[in-house]
Amino acid sequence: LPGEKGYNKDCHGKNASHTIVEVPVGTIVKDQNLRVVGDLDCHGAMFVAARGGAGGHGNSFFCSDTVQSPEVAEYGALGENLSYVIEIRSMAHFGLLGMPNAGKSTLLQAISRARPKIAPYPFTTLKPHLGVVQYSDYEQIAVADLPGLIEGSHKNRGLGISFLRHVERCAALLLLVDVSGPTPWQDVQMLRHELSCFSEPLSRRPQLILANKIDVPGSQDNVEALKEHLPGETILCISAKFGTNLLALLNLLRSIYDESMKNKMQDKV
């Protein structure tokens, strides 16, 4: 906005008034070159997108030895005119990734109060869902359930990988695979490939493999094969439908969360 012009009788113009736009926590501000210039990652954070014009000088500013009562004043300055790209990234601590129908929404509903849509067909989840896990000491951990990834998602197949920006702030990624299928290790490899195609730093984030649907007959053999193909990996066998090992999962999430918070505090110091 432009500043107000100056007036006579020693009156200077007002500076342009503030225009404040409230946005959700987690908003990213990018310039026209898509370079991040603002990250509103906490309550109360502010970003000055453009400065308004200064008010014009009144006639007294132009007084001189020869002109005691000038009949001239100054126009207000023009404000800045800038364009930005605004992007929302959720503030989840953990990102839940997997292929369609792997049981992500069922798991989110089992460990939190979120109520995402659950159905026995692919791409039931069409947008990210955020669930909050409540602990007995009143600590809260947010888990983001994203739409299923398929092979070639980075080429915009299926729902694409546009939703992966919501897990870029996560402390760790939860790779959920369906061990009732014959080759769960290939699902893990595919998920990691799609992650690396989206963001190499994101693919290096700590990962926890969740072997879901161990209640299905024959899944134990697939779990053993999964461990053979991925030696040294952290693999937790669960059943989101029947609640098997979910307490162990919540304890593991809490330990990862506490370690992440400890590292953040050390970085600030």
Furnish the topology, listing elements before pairings.
Elements: E1 27-30, E2 36-40, E3 85-88, E4 94-98, H1 104-111, E5 129-134, E6 140-145, E7 172-178, H2 184-198, H3 200-203, E8 207-212, H4 219-229, E9 235-237, H5 246-268
Parallel strand pairs: 4-6, 4-7, 7-8, 8-9
Antiparallel strand pairs: 1-2, 1-3, 5-6
What's the N-to-C terminus distance?
40 Å
User: Class of the largest domain, according to the CATH hierarchy?
Assistant: Alpha Beta
Based on secondary structure, the structural category is: alpha/beta
Assign an overall shape.
Answer: elongated
Largest sheet: 6 strands, mixed
CATH level-two architecture of the largest domain:
3-Layer(aba) Sandwich
Strand portion? 15-25%
- Total strand segments: 9
SSE run: EEEEHEEEHHEHEH
Computed CA radius of gyration, to the nearest angstrom:
27 Å
Strand order of the largest sheet: 5-6-4-7-8-9
- The CATH topology of the largest domain turns out to be Rossmann fold
Low-confidence stretches: none
Averaged pLDDT, please?
81
Number of domain modules: 2
Count of alpha/pi helices: 5
Share of helix among residues?
A: 10-25%
The name of the CATH superfamily of the largest domain reads P-loop containing nucleotide triphosphate hydrolases
Family: Belongs to the TRAFAC class OBG-HflX-like GTPase superfamily. OBG GTPase family.
Pfam families: GTP1_OBG (PF01018), MMR_HSR1 (PF01926)
Keywords: GTP-binding, Nucleotide-binding, Ribosome biogenesis
GO molecular function, one term: GTP binding
